[in-house]
Amino acid sequence: MKHMNSEVKEERTSNKKRIDLFLVPIVLIAAFLNLFKIWTDEYANAYYTAAVKSMLQSFHNFFYASFDPGGYVTIDKPPVVFWIQTISAKIFGFHGWSVILPQALAGIGSVLLLYVLVKRTFGVWAGRFAALAMALTPIVPAVSRTNNIDSMLVFTLLVATWMLFRAVRTAKFGWVLAAFAMIGVAFNMKMLQAYMVLPAFYVFYVVATKITWKKKIAFLTTATALMLAVSVSWAVVVDSTSADKRPYMGSSQTNSVLELAFGYNGINRLTGNTSVTGSSHKQPAQTQQQTASSETKQTSNSSSDSSQSSNQRKSSSSQKMQAPGGGNQNGMFNTGNPGPFRLFQKGLSDQISWLLPFVIFSIVGLFAGVKSKGPYTTKQKESLFWLAWLLPVAVFFSIAGFFHQYYLIMLAPPIAAFAGAGAVALWSMYKQRNGWKSWLLPGGILTTAALQVYIMSPYVSSIGVAPIAGVGALGVILALVLAVRKERKNSLTNYLGAAVLVVLLAMPAYWAMTPIIYGGNSMLPAAGPDSSSGMGGPPSTATNSKQSGFNGMQPPGSSSGNSSSNNQMQPPSGSSNGGQLQMPGGSSNNGQMQPPSASSNSGQMQMPNSTLSKASSSKRKSGGMNAEVNKKLLNYLTKNNTGEKYLFATTDSTSAAPYIIETGKPVMAMGGFSGSDPILTVSKLKAMIKKGEVKYFYLSGMGKGGQSDVITWIKENSKEIPSSKWQSTSLSSQQGPSGNGTLYEITLK
User: Fold this and answer.
1) Residues whose CB falls within 8 Å of the CB of residue 313, separated by 6 or more in sequence, listed in order
2) Inter-residue contact 149 to 107 (CB < 8 Å)
3) What's the pTM value of the predicted model, to 2 decimals?
4) Cα dihedral: 487, 491, 492, 498 (round 10)
5) Which of 98, 114, 286, 692 has a CA positioned 20 to 30 A from the CA of residue 157?
6) Residue 652 near residue 673 (C-beta atoms within 8 A)
7) Using an 8 Å Cβ cutoff, are 584 and 404 in contact?
8) CA separation for the pair 58, 55 (Å, rounded)
9) What is the pLDDT of residues 512-558, one digit of tens each?
10) Residue 297, class by beta-carbon neighbours within 10 Å (0-12 exposed, 13-18 middle, 19+ buried)?
């Protein structure tokens, strides 16, 4: 810590070294958090893993990112990340870990990139602190340990940032073009979410470059045009291809990539209307009323869960909404109520906000003395860049109608950058006794410790009182000691600085390890003692923190590590109008997915096509609602296949994905991810049956939105296959999302 006052000298010294020895343990920490035990996740997010399995089979499937080997429907995101995952699976073999590996490496790469970006301007200690803060931000490893897109997206945007900084330093227009083109590549990873950093890019280039306004406008216009061209390149090719020569664009209403990009994956995220059939999620009061009703019914039907239900009632007394799976929830999927303090609410704060108060104090210190008309130092210019990244993204998540907790990884780079740069700046101001600025460090420590106590308080039953009290007490003591010793100079002050670092990062470090300790959820990744639930809320209803599924719900057919089946919490049964959940990638039943009804067996949630795995801690078929393969059903379908293209058809991807992963054979998800995409019509289905492309249909009750006519026709014109032929006796009582599933056979002449 004592070297932080001589930043320039240290930077020159470190530049002469080939390896920063302080960086090595930081990278090792990031590698551990991102890589350890990813090999236990067999399915990962099955929706995306099935797509990789399909993409391995043909260039046609590879280019379009087809969900199924038959090329019937695509996944709901553009293909770049899945191209990378497919290449990884091709090199290392098709495994859960091989599709996760690119994201895990991207998480480590982001730590290294942030070190490089911050160190050059703010000093080597700032770079080290920023890299460590990035590595220990809980949502970063939680997302990077899955095959979701966001970790790769952030890494790509940081590469673009490095290019932009280089463009300013070298005054070369080529690097400007490269930076904006890289954002275009990021657009082809997760569409409009990539554009959230554009304010930072525009503001920084305008402020930092020493060229005429005419050139600035010309260069930025040209770079933006290139970015847009790269962004829509794949979309234009796909939308220009005849619909009968490519898969249907999943989760769109008009079979269009551009509609998907700017609608479902764009503006609708802000408005909250992510329904693909026109319904809106903006019904918090109704949802909360219906969910509570579902929970009441569940309580009355299951005496074995009485203690859990009691805990639910206690938790919900201070919350506006108790979502399936428990936890402190205000809003869909524990993303809080929109407002200026949303990022400090439960469910979001423990994912990203541990250092936010310190960041706020750091921003004050870094911008202290800035004049409106300049000139600006390099530190101030780059601080402005990170601020222009942080604020718009924070505002979006504060007001957005629908997103998932793991999207918050977009905030990790600017928060980590300010934590690193601010630590050095505030420390320097403190040691120099720089007037009111010298109080920023004690103030930042005190308020940050207070927030961390607030974040941890709902988890007292899981982590105990000691760490909460410890952080609070040490935060207060350190802040007071620094305040008292402000006028003194001796070596003890440096040790106090090291103690501050440990106190502020200890609990974020623990939270970052929770996906390893308790198990993760690949469909809805979140950190915390209930990380396997994917809901990221305090475990008010779970009796075993190692349970998987939604805070105790056992994912259909999944292995929850060391969990016991008797400890599984029954999810509330979905009502016809409420208690609805929007899962990543799509929606069902008029754009919304109903929580699965619970089976009566040991409180475990099961699906008709799933076989609950026996207790096994070596492999996890995780990913939220992923099912396992019903071997008897698979054997029946394989034995009775007479050359049909599709092994069987089903309403949605949840039922189809495990069979695609296990067999590599085409399985038709008639309504796409959620079962509500308007892909199939009765006439199209008749034609497919007459051509001998499909004859078996597994209907579980999901995905009726947009497919009701097709489902009705199937039931009226098919032969029901007795369950004894395809369902084992142990599974005969299982319930699907909206009732018992049924297998039908249709043969038209």
Assistant:
1) none
2) no
3) 0.82
4) 110
5) 98
6) yes
7) yes
8) 6
9) 999 999 988 899 999 999 877 665 555 433 333 333 333 333 333 33
10) middle
